[in-house]
Amino acid sequence: MRVAVVSIVCLVGLALAAPAWAQDPNLIEQGAKLFTDQKCTLCHSVAGKGNPKGVLDAVGAKLSANEIREWIVSPKEMTAKTKAERKPPMKAYPNLSKTDVDALVAYVSSLKKK
Fold first, then answer.
1. 3-class SS of residue 89
2. Using only C-alpha atoms, what is the Rg of the chain?
3. Residue 86 three-state SS
4. I need a labelling partner for 24 at 20 to 30 A (CA). Which of 18, 53, 61, 102 fits?
5. 60 belongs to a structural domain
6. Mean pLDDT for the stretch of residues 56-85
7. Which residue(s) pair with 50 in the sheet?
8. How far is CA 37 from the centre of its chain?
9. Residue 57: which domain range?
10. Are 108 and 64 in contact (CB under 8 A)?
11. What is the dihedral sign for C-alpha 98, 100, 106, 112?
C-alpha cells in the first residue's frame, strides 16, 4: 500500500513539473539545436523550413509532452497506436540521452502555431 501511495505521489509530481520544464527557454533552445543537429528537417518542417510532408508548426497544441516523447523514443509503437501511414515511418533515436530527449520534447511542445 505504501509503495502505491509513493508511486502516485511521484507521478502527480512529475505531471505537475512537466509544464515547467517544457517552458524553460534554455531547454527549448537546446532542443531546437538538437532538432537541427539530428537532421529532423529531412522529414519534418517548422516555419516552412524542412520537409513540408511533416509539418510540426502546431504539434505542441495537438499532442501532449508525453505523446511527443513517445514519438521520439518509441516511434514504431506510436505509428501502430495512431495508425499513422506516412512513409517512411519515423525512425528511432536510441542513442539520445534523457537530457536530449527532454530538450527535444520541450522544443517540439513549444511549437504552437500563432
1. coil
2. 15
3. coil
4. 53
5. yes
6. 95
7. 45
8. 15
9. 2-109
10. no
11. negative
Model's pTM, two decimal places? 0.78
- In this structure, are residues 73 and 93 in contact, taking their beta carbons and an 8 Å threshold? yes
The answer to whether the beta carbons of residues 75 and 69 sit under 8 Å apart is no
Cα separation, 109 vs 114, whole angstroms: 14
Please state the three-class secondary structure of 67-110 as a single string: HHHHHHHCHHHHHHHHCCCCCCCCCCCCCCCHHHHHHHHHHHHC
Q: Locate cell 523550413: which residue? A: 49
CATH number at residue 75: 1.10.760.10
Strands 45-46 and 49-50: antiparallel
Residue 114 lies in a domain: no
In this predicted structure, the answer to whether residue 61 has a pLDDT above a threshold of 50 is: yes
> What pLDDT, on the 0 to 100 scale, is given for residue 86?
85
Bridge partners (DSSP) of residue 49 are 46
Name the one residue in this structure whose C-alpha cell is 525512425.
Answer: 91
Element (H, E) at 67: helix 65-73
| Gap between the Cα atoms of 21 and 105, Å rounded | 10
> How many domains does the chain contain in total?
1
